[in-house]
Every structure is written in structure tokens, then in C-alpha cells.
Here is the input.
Amino acid sequence: MASYDAVVYGAGPVGAAVALGLQQRGHRVCVREKRTEHQVVIDAGKSINLSLSTRGCAMLTEIGAYDDLKSTLIPMVSRRFSNGSTERYREPLLSINRNLLTIKLIRAAEAAGVKFEYGTGYAPGDVDVATGSVRLGEGLHCKPRVIVGCDGVHGKVAKLINLGEAERSSRASEWGYYELSLPPEANAHMSKDVFNNFHIWSGRGRWSTEFIVGLPNHDGSITLTLFALMRDMEARYSAAEGGAAQFRQYLAEAYEGGLDALVTGVDEAVAGGFQRIWLNDHEELAGELGSSGTFVFLFGDAALGMEQFLGLAVNLGLEGAHRGFLEHWERAGEKDDAFWRGLVRARNHLNAGAKALQRASTLNAASMRDGCDDPLGKAVRAVLEARHGTAAIEDSAFESTHDWWSFCSVSLKVVEAVVEAQDETVRAIKEAIKDARGAEDGADAGALSEAEKQTVLEMGAAAVGPLVAQRTRLSEEHQAAVQACFA
Here is the structure.
């Protein structure tokens, strides 16, 4: 029998990070990956860029990988729209190529002693659900303490603890994507102030439900992702019917900036088809195999899916491994079965945060399209943020929606409630201003008079106290619920 304390299925960024964290905590770890080593670390292929925020970076710092990644990260200081307007982040998001992140984490895990076995992903029957024994190959087995499922959005490890689910339990989002690129020569004229941003092109006219985001790369290119509703885009462009030329015409008509002449990858995108975004709705993200003392945990796309409008899918994957898993090793006492069962309960408690992110991501698709709010709403938010924001986000009474989701260490489920309450405050203030303006032209214009700014401050002041009290109460309830998991 082989001797491993942990078996991780999937060598993506979250799988490699979890493996490294477990190895650092004294576990002997084996990672099993269905792709070949050549596919994973040599010819990794095309991949959507990722934007790391505070939530994801906390895990990378926890496992000591962040310093090695620093030189590969491109800071994105603002959202930048095609008309040149910007919305500055309270701190930069960090752009990194998914493949580069994965390779760096794999190399760090290998250096720590993690064993990677390629071409050997999970297959039904590899785990004996009665005993917790894992088949590693012909005649080879081990009895690990933990099995980790990081085997992707259609992963099979999830079925070990979600027995009643359909064979393919992931569901298709209503959104899909094409991936394109702006090559370095197209961006050579850009200043650093323009390049180092999270770029957004909003669709125009009949394409107003569609938008493109762009993340900058070290080589001067910008990776573009076009998001649109599947029902609108699926089969719109066919390679066999001159779809690439039609798609370039679409880029010319729907977006500012001459994208049709600048982008590369159009032919490949059309030939590959419009890609679906998949979500997961697993009831359990962790569980014990009977009473075997072998525990199963799901992280990354295997737990959540690929929702990425907020740029937070990878961050939630890393945060789940950090907050819902590795962070609890700091607890005093034996890491016995009682500890692991508490860990199972704590991981499942965080599932509400995953659901909150999925909901917020879909809602945020609309805010991406219209510049994160209508002009009047943006003006109201700016006044409230200027008055009630603070240098430390946890002390702020009012912050931008994206900053709450990206840079706050508060539970995602709590953030969802905070964001909804803030949105309701902004909506009420907007309606009051529009009512006072009457039916005059420009009643929803963004410019505020001094008297209107005073209205914003007065109405905002009445709402701020309850907002802070709500966040404090919900955060305390969340912490108490996590503590109770280990009682």
C-alpha cells in the first residue's frame, strides 16, 4: 500500500495550491491529473487571464507562493471604459495568465515534496466509499485522511459526497464567451496609465447586452473576453459560412476603438465556437466517506464553476481553500476525526458564500455593460464614498460594490447583504433627486447641484448607521457559526 495522507485530484491553480498547503502542514500529498505533463506545464495552451484580488492573494501568501509570483503580476488600477472614463479601485486587481499561475504553483509544490502523477485523473471506482481506500494504479492503494476534488467544473469527485446528483450535475450559465487578443503592437502607443487597467468595452445599439473585458499581459498584449448571452450568440457566426468576416463586422459596429482591425484570434474563436460558462450547485462541498475517517473536500471549479464576471471565481476558489480549510490548522488541539468533522461543517457553511458569488456575478454583468451604474447612480455613489469611505475597507461605511467583493476580508455572504443594502440606499436617493427635478430634460443626468449633493449626504447619513450595524451583526453571526462547527 502506498503511503499518502492526502490525494488531490486536479493540478489546476487551486489544486496545486491546496496540495502545497497540505504538504507544508505535514501531509504526504499525491496529485493526480488526467492531462499529460506536456499538456499542463509545457504546452498549456490558450487560457483566460485571471484577476487576483485580496481574497485570492491571502491564500497565495499563506502558502508562501505570493513573493515568487509578484514579478509576473500586472496591476490593474481602475476599470477603464472605451470612452476613456475610469473608476479607480481602492487597490489594484492583479492580472496573471492562468497557465503561468498554475505552473508556478506546481513547481513550488514539487519543491516541497508533493508527488504529481499525470495521465491518471479520477475515475469512478477509484475510491472505496466504505473504507476510504484510494486506488492509485495497478495493485496500488492508499488510505488517505483527505481526498480533495479540484477536478474541474464537470468533476466526478463531487459525486462521492453528493450521491443523489445527476451524472453531470453542473448547469450551463445563460452567458458564454469568446477569447481574443490585442497584440503588443496594437497597444504600443498606450501609456502605462492607460495600459494598466481592467478594460471594458460596452456593446452599442442592438448589442447593448454584450461586453468585452480586457486584461493586460507582461508582453504588452491584452487578453480580451467577449461575454454575451448564449441565446443571442450561439450559432450566430459559422466558420463554414464566412463567420470570421461577419464577426469582424460586428466588432466594428458594436464597439468603439476599431477593435475589428486590432484584434487577433477571430478565426480561432469562430472555429472553436462560442464557449459555455458552467456553474455547480452542489449541496455539499465536504463530507466523510461513511465513518471511514477519510474526508472529501471540493474546491475551485469543482465546487463553484466558472462564473467570472467579477473576476472572482479563482479568488473564491483560493479563498475557500484558505478560509474554509487551511486556516483552521491554527486551531489548538489534535487534528483528529472531531477536527476533520468540524472542518467539513465549516466548509459547507461557506457554501452560501459561493451561491452569493454566483448571484452577484450574474447581476454584475449588467453593471459591466452600463459602466457599473447609470450616470446619476455613479454620482450618488461617488458622494457617499467620499464622505463615508476609509483607508481600511473593513472600517468603511460605504464602498463601491466591486471593492466590497474584491478587497474585503468579510464573508462573501455578508458582503452580499451589504451590497444589496447599499444598492437600495442609492436607488432611494436617485428616486428622490429625480422626483425633485420633475419631468425636465436630463432628470437622470449625472451632474449633481450643491443642493442635490446635500440631499445625498442627508439621506445617506440616515442609512449609514444601519448599514454598519447590519454588517457588524452579520459578521459576528458568521464567525459564531464557524466556531460552532468545531464545538
